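Example (one chain per record):
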Amino acid sequence: MESIYYIGLDVHKKSIAYCIKTESGKLVREGTIKAQRESLRQWLQELPAPWIGALEATIFTGWIYDFLKPHALELKVAHPQMLKAITAAKKKNDRADAETLADLLRVNLLPQCYMMPPELRELRRMLRYRNLVVSAATQMKNKMSGLLMEVGAPYSKRRLHGKKYFSELLEQGRGCS
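Predicted structure:
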């Protein structure tokens, strides 16, 4: 029977530190790769198979998880807050973090968090962006109203943010000077 390899991945914006261990805990290989699809594709070709992986939840985890998932027997995402409580180490670096993830995975003590399906993550991303746009638009509308009130200019609150009405206000403003 083929042995399973355990891989810990410490994910960052530009790089990913990895550590590969056997079931017994023997270090097979460790290193760093670029956090890019092409680098990951090349790295996957060099991996011993079969493997189970773990990576910490970050803002970058989603695309890496989706990219690696089809190639792993199992891919888990570690809960960052619970992981901090377990691994309060004095010496922290990327290589040590990757090794810790591999060890926690190997002994089945990895504090796992739920990874939403890609469709739901994309929907959340769009809703966050929409919320940002609506918030910025509201802030701008309130600022415009405040500026008009500041100078005592009469305006229709209901029509204020229409392009045509705003142009009319600008024309009136030019006539007042």
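Caption: The beta strands are 5-11, 15-21, 27-34, 51-56, 74-78.
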